[in-house]
Amino acid sequence: MRIFIHGPLFQGKLTEDLLRISVEQLIKQALPDAQISTIIDVPEELRTPKGLLGWLNAKVTLLLLLGGDLLGRLNIPFLSGSEWLNKRKFDIVIFGAGYRKEDKKLSANEKDALTGLLINAKSLSVRGQKTADMLKKMGVKAEVIGDPVFSFEPSDLSGFMEDLFSIQRPMVAVNLRHLSSEDMGAFKKSLSHDFIEDVFAELLKNDFAEYGKIFLPFTLPSKGNGDAALHGTLTAKYGGELSLKYWNLDKMASFIREVDFLLSMRLHPILLALKFGTPTYLIDYQYDKLADALSAGGLDKATKSLSLFNGNQMEQPFMGMDALQYAEKYKDKAPAIQHAVEKLAETQLQYMKKILKGR
What we know:
By secondary structure, the chain is of the alpha/beta class. It contains 13 helices and 10 strands. The strands form 3 sheets. It has a 5-stranded parallel β-sheet, covered by helices on one side. Strand 1 (2-6), helix 1 (14-30) and strand 2 (35-39) form a beta-alpha-beta unit. The protein is globular.
């Protein structure tokens, strides 16, 4: 079977590669002989209904892969607002679509475009219950199967990891994201981006004083990359050595699997840490995005009483414990988290087998 995957249009972050490869790995598990074609941008021949129908008439199964926020990735020229779209049945699967509080404020035209795109999908999945509930109010039914990152397996890079960790052990990774004023609206007014950096800097000075420290961007190096600026600011506040590492996806995921602790504000590094059993400081910094992702497969119960923090709770990292105490508590939770992750991975595999069966 020939399967066509249309990936997100945003580039420069490892998230897009992670979601795409996770779905490709799932397809290969479900259908080992599948011939997969992937595009990250929209070629000219697919910008018109005629061009798209040419693909469909060639017996290509169309999987529409959206990552991150729901509408932000819905910027596909030949789909948005197309009258003919409502008249056809498509095999569209949405993985990794996420809920944001601001999605409640969609305009009537935006809701119509979104509904028109999704209403006729033969198979539609989302990663969390909040997203499913939002779509349900629009008359669109979606199946909650969790984020596909739980099915991701990096390549074997044991040699790379052995060389890296021979430098120093234990090791902590820091993963920040710059927050705009709009992002900060989800936090208590007394908080600021400077305050978040201050919290992380104090943790590095005190709780992780004896750890090797790596700043872990989840983007590719490019001009104007915000991660480099964040690294500089945090290093200045911390006052010690904080290495900046740009790696490809396999190295990044392998490192998260092996590192002793992860301080993170980004969704997918957190989900990878949960998958691999790496103690991590969870921060749901905006839009209930992390809470939505953890609502699938019992992960919310498995992570309950860990630091699923929003900005209002950052004044007391680790709920008043030191990092070592928190890591021990995390290890107590690890079997339940691992069970939930494995359950979700199996759910995703069975879902993929079901939607590909008979195509």
